[in-house]
Amino acid sequence: MADNSKAEDAASDSVEAAKHASDKKEKLADQVMQNPQVLAALQERLDSSSHTPSSYIETLPKAVKRRIDALKQLQVKCAHIEAKFYEEVHDLERKYAALYQPLFDKRRDFVIGEAEPTDAESEWHSENEEEEKLAGDLKNKVVIEEKEAAAAATEESNPKGIPDFWFTIFRNVDMLSELVQEYDEPILKHLQDIKVKFSEPGQPMSFSLEFHFEPNDYFTNSVLTKTYKMKSEPDKTDPFSFEGPEIVDCEGCTIEWKKGKNVTVKTIKKKQKHKGRGTVRTITKQVPNDSFFNFFSPIKVSGDGESLDEDSEFTLATDFEIGHFFRERIVPRAVLYFTGEAIEDDDNFEEGEEGEEEELEGEEEGEEEEDTESDPKKDSSQPAECKQQ
How confident is the model at residue 48 (pLDDT cuts 50, 70, 90)? Predict the structure, then answer.
């Protein structure tokens, strides 16, 4: 009987304790809900969740939703019209490429030394013309000496054309110089011209890059090509993502390397030990090697819809970016990338954007410091939060 009494007392105490804890939680909840700051935060969260675009659309009457669907149909038609617009732009690019080409051909002739510019063609007024004129006046005294020295100079003092024109461009442009290895450099010094060719009318949209080389000791090809295939039509599964033509695939070419000159592979030696006899033999094998000329052996986009791994996707995206840069910037403005003027313009533009960002960040930091100083309860030694955009 005593044991039963103790058990009943323990059960009663447990129930009483649970009831006390429940009362305490309810009292605490009441206190929290009476806090105006907590209520305001809860209301703000409810308001933000209830005013999202999707939640708002769901509250609209069926007739209004039907009209919205009609607007989406119109938007898809707009995307298809935009695709036609870009197709005509491609036709215009082809038309004007034919007008540019005689100028680019003359550029090639000057670069490789097949032609000399006339005095009128080589006349150029620089921004520092006045300074150059003053400097020229000061140098007049040594002109006679220079002419005498020039008369006795060898042919090396007057090289043919513009030496290392395209190779210098590769060195000047970070996007390209990162691809060029030391053993690529002597090959690129044989590069004479780069041309852009657009697909013919009625053919799928594409463009090709042609790299023209003089005869050299590395490969027998006179031209290396890279073709970029483009798509200018809205995706059936996501038509609203269409923003113009995009490169979807590319094809390189086979480089006919001369014996022992292929810089895209390297030969390594590996020792193998026989499991049974214990003898060791040395074998040689070829493995891929970093080189700019891997540019002509791109990753192939799978036609069966199979997705690429992350590294392959990054490599392909970089390849597309380089091809587009050749087409839009390097080939049309080659001389400015040779002199570095185009690079300075690009750098100035980027620095301006960064400067604005830094200025804005400085203003934000200033505001945080003012807030800290205005609140004596805050620890002034606490570093400001670093915000990333």
Answer: low
d(CA 151, CA 131): 28
Place of tokens 């392959």: 312
Contact indicator for 115, 109 with CB cutoff of 8 Å: yes
Write out the two tokens for 133.
């004129």
Distance CA 20, CA 14 (A): 10
Q: Which amino acid is at 203?
A: Q
Q: Which residues contact 317 (CB under 8 A, 6 or more apart)?
A: none
Coil/strand/helix, residue 162:
coil
Half-sphere exposure of 256 (CA within 13 A, CB side): 7
Distance CA 363, CA 361 (A): 5
pLDDT at 156: 54
Burial label for 203, CB within 10 Å (0-12, 13-18, 19+), is exposed
CB 190 within 8 A of CB 213: yes
Minimal CA–CA distance to 26: which of 38, 36, 34, 16? Answer: 34
Distance separating alpha carbons of residues 324 and 113, to the nearest angstrom:
29
Helices (H), the chain: 2-33, 36-50, 53-59, 62-112, 119-122, 129-139, 143-151, 165-172, 174-177, 185-188, 310-325, 334-339, 341-374
Report which of 212, 191, 252, 226 is spatially closest to residue 326, judged by C-alpha positions: 226
User: How far apart are alpha carbons 229 and 198 in whole angstroms?
Assistant: 10
Question: What is the model's pTM?
Answer: 0.68
Distance between CA atoms of residues 66 and 71, nearest Å: 9
pLDDT tens digits, 335-357: 999 999 988 766 655 554 454 44
Q: What is the pLDDT of residues 97-130, one digit of tens each?
A: 999 999 999 999 999 999 999 999 999 887 665 5
